Amino acid sequence: MRICLVIPSNRFDQYFIQVPLDVLLAAGQLRAEGHSVTVWDQRLQDSAPAVDQPDIVVVSSAIADRAQCYPLDIGPVRAAADRARQVFPTARTLVIGPHGTHLPEATRSALAVDHIAIGEADSAAVHAVRCLDRGVTAPILSGDLATVASPLAIMGDRFTPFPNLPLDDWALPAYDLAPMDRYTSEVVVDGLPQPGPCGMVLAARGCTYGCTFCHLPFGTRMRTGPVDRVIAEIEAQRAAGLEFQFFLDYVFGINKPFYSEICDRMKGRGIGWVGQTRAEIVLKTDVREWAAAGCQGMWLGAESPSVAGTDVHKRVTEKQIQEAVVKLRDAGITPFAFVLLGLPNDDACISDWLVDWASGIPAWFGINQLFLRPGTTLYDQHAPLYNSGVLPTTWDQVQQVTERYREAYPADLDDQERRLTALPNYLGNAITPVG
Predict the structure, then answer these.
(1) How far apart (Å, rounded) are the C-alpha atoms in residues 252 and 333?
(2) How far is CA 345 from CA 309, 361, 400, 409, 417, in A?
(3) pTM of whole model > 0.85?
(4) Domains of the chain
(5) 285 band by pLDDT with thresholds 50, 70 and 90
(6) Sorting pLDDT into bands at 50, 70 and 90, what band is 155?
(7) Which of 80, 263, 284, 314 has the CA that lies 20 to 30 A from 302?
């Protein structure tokens, strides 16, 4: 079959355009299974690949680096699907990603596509193409499709995600199908962050912590990839012109033997990298090992200095955050902190001392206002309260839930965001927007 995988543009492209790792993984695997594959990254490529009409267009609703904090506005995904339909009018359209996984019928309707694939995006793409190749016509493609004519897949209203392909079975990502030298992220030069050419690697998938606000596209069980495979991906990206890497692993260092081996293999390669983890992991780890392996920056999910008192199942104290930041800094690793505005019962936010705290933390920080996202426990708890007692059935309703939540919040979140973004250690003030 001829397959074109599409990455939509979105407003998050302002600062960085990161490697669409899961899309390239799916592309590599599909090509290894004998299909003709192209990639159209609409963030960087105005025109579609000059190829014969594909049989299937696969649109990602949120690539790997956006899947944890996926946007509720699916307008950009609809625009990408519409563009693809204009260029490839005879192709069937298939959408992968968290939107379809959590609200399949609403997503298919809103995007006007032929099929939704449910599950971890890269695995779902491969499984869905296999189904379509053997003649399946069901609009919702899922793990229920044990046979071509599965009544569960056609008539059911609850669907089982496609199983995840074993990490050691994947072909290498199809880096040759994308403009690798044009992908960027935050790189660190002389201790200062700036946008620069950067690849992406996912050594381990999943997160065992149960923060209720967090969407986990890779699940709650840790799955480590073969170390040889991880190094091969890094070297392949370097050969494509990317000397810096971003480790997308959500809790870098949590599996000490695995990450120690990764660090041992990274030493002496001259590759700089940034990762992300939690304060508790930093405090339990000799982070000098990370620095010796080329780590130049590390993100912490700080959220708020009073996050431990918000009942979102994140028991990280202000003291732990401060100590972790200082420990990273003293090891020569630039610390970064995620700040999340609007957590329920967040004293720092409600009492308006979050801005002062952020101004004094010796780290660069990025911010987001809380979104109530399908696929999180916090959404299941709060969404009915702002939607007449029931869970939303459309994406417009989902967006309205977050809007109503913020309107009812006992603090001016927009004002706090404005004051936070004016601080000198706000990451957006250290880097220049793309273009």
Answers:
(1) 14
(2) 8, 22, 20, 9, 17
(3) yes
(4) 2-163 (3.40.50.2300), 180-429 (3.20.20.70)
(5) very high
(6) very low
(7) 263
